[in-house]
Design brief:
This protein has helices at 16-27, 39-49, 61-75, 98-126, 147-167, 185-192, 197-202, 213-224, and strands at 7-10, 31-36, 52-55, 80-83, 129-134, 172-178, 235-237. The chain is α/β, with parallel strands linked by helices. The chain has a 7-stranded parallel beta sheet, with helices on both faces. The longest helix has 29 residues, at 98-126.
């Protein structure tokens, strides 16, 4: 029961890693307040975990402020935020459209900023809390053909480092996670249509396999809990591409 009675907020909780984190948090005793833009998907996870929440757009600052305020109204406090929303669009920087660039910044970086900004006053009042944000290996050193996404995910890492610096003396910890390619339904569907499938996509990963969503959830739960009480300002790197460091076969 790592999160026994802690009030935990999760954005993008309707599927994939977000849903896995919600289930793990529930198993660890957290009181959940969830969000997803897909109302039906959110309702299913809420029912599965016994939590509560609101469907809506996490890139809308007014909605996010209301969502956090309702969590405090319902449960009196905020102890944990896990920011999970993100989106990518392929394209080299020279060909990336304005719309594709803004979409990736809005859904990946803006969502993290709005949720983080909204919970900080409540965590300060409570004497602390833990913020965990989903980043990506693309945010460490860039990634070919995913420059907009890489820039947004690098921003997530830097945002968490800054929060850790600014609010650590008030008991607020902030960390990020890079899970590597994860076996969610959209990725599995995509890989099923690519030449070589999963094997070709994972050959140059550190672990030469996809990460399971439950593995990510375990790391996020630890960072959210008091078991990691001295860990802040860190990016937990997991199973990212390291072909540049690996001898060619």
């Amino acid at each position: 029961m790592l999160l026994d009675s802690k009030v935990a907020l999760i954005t993008g909780a309707g599927a994939g890693i977000g849903a896995a984190v919600a289930r793990r948090f529930a198993a660890e005793g957290a009181v959940l307040w969830l969000n997803d833009i897909d109302a039906d998907a959110l309702a299913a996870v809420v029912e599965d975990t016994g939590g509560g929440g609101m469907a809506g757009d996490a890139s809308d600052p007014e909605f996010v402020a209301t969502w956090v305020a309702e969590a405090v109204h319902s449960h009196g406090r905020v102890d944990v935020l896990y920011s999970n929303v993100g989106a990518s669009r392929s394209g080299r920087i020279g060909e990336l459209t304005d719309d594709a660039w803004r979409l990736q910044q809005r859904l990946t970086l803006d969502t993290c900023f709005y949720a983080t900004r909204a919970v900080i006053p409540h965590m300060r009042t409570n004497g602390g809390g833990s913020i965990v944000a989903m980043s990506s290996g693309a945010g460490i050193g860039g990634q070919y053909g995913l420059g907009g996404y890489a820039a947004a995910k690098a921003g997530v890492i830097s945002l968490m480092e800054t929060v850790a610096t600014e609010y650590g003396d008030e008991g607020i910890r902030a960390n990020s996670v890079t899970p590597g390619p994860t076996a969610t339904a959209p990725l599995l569907s995509y890989l099923g249509r690519q030449e070589g499938g999963i094997a070709a996509h994972t050959a140059d990963l550190d672990l030469a396999r996809l990460t399971d969503p439950d593995e990510v959830a375990a790391v996020v739960a630890w960072l959210a809990s008091d078991e990691s009480s001295s860990i802040t300002g860190m990016c937990i790197r997991a199973n990212i591409r390291s072909a540049s460091r690996r001898p060619r076969r």
